[in-house]
Specification:
This protein has 193 residues and is an alpha/beta fold. The protein has seven helices and six strands. Bound molecules: magnesium ion. Magnesium ion binds next to loops.
Length: 193
């Protein structure tokens, strides 16, 4: 796979069968997973190959080193630039374009590097949810995004059950692990970072 920043942002979109009325409120809300979507999968590689302890040490040691760019980073930038234009007109809380980070990372253990990376990129999302491994359903139900991007199919499947139009980013070790697990008929140990 080529480096994500040299190509076009792409994902496999899944429609949902549930009817919702989220598109009728005049806003565009887009929700992104972090690792393997906005960011590269470099931290997730450490987690999946070396375990949680090595992952935590890596994130602490690399706190001031921005994460690499993921496949959807450029799309986020385009949306944030639209947000900034509305902000310049005084539209903040009622900005018609809103962006959300919904990550399984822990805010204390591994969230700092994410926030510092976004700051280094000059990209500020509307809101960020650090779930510490908890399910993504509750924040997605609250956000009611018009589309949600994640690199791990189990999260996509969960979002679809809520009626969220979701797009699977087929990139990185999370995606590769899922493919391998499918081949073996095992869907365990797929914790997303
Ligand atoms: Mg991910």
């Amino acid at each position: 796979m080529s480096h994500p920043t040299t190509g076009h942002a792409a994902a496999i979109m899944f429609p949902n069968d549930k009817e919702n009325h989220w598109s009728e409120d005049g806003e565009l809300r887009v929700a992104f997973d972090g690792d393997g979507v906005l960011f590269s999968d470099e931290s997730e590689i450490v987690f999946k190959k070396k375990g949680l302890e090595a992952y935590i040490k890596n994130e602490n040691d690399s706190e001031d080193i921005p994460l690499g760019e993921g496949p959807l980073r450029c799309f986020l930038e385009a949306l944030v630039n639209m947000e900034k234009k509305f902000h310049a007109k005084g539209l903040y809380r009622n900005c018609p374009v809103q962006t959300f980070l919904v990550t399984s990372r822990d805010p204390v253990i591994s969230g700092t590097r994410v926030l510092k990376t976004l700051k280094s990129w000059g990209l500020e999302l509307t809101q960020a949810f650090f779930l510490s491994g908890r399910p993504k359903g509750p924040p997605l139900s609250m956000i009611q995004p018009h589309i949600f991007f994640d690199d791990q199919k189990p999260h996509i499947d969960g979002a679809l059950k809520l009626g969220v139009i979701s797009a699977h980013v087929a990139y990185g070790i999370g995606y590769e692990t899922y493919k391998g697990a499918c081949k073996e008929g095992v869907l365990t140990n797929l914790g997303d970072k």
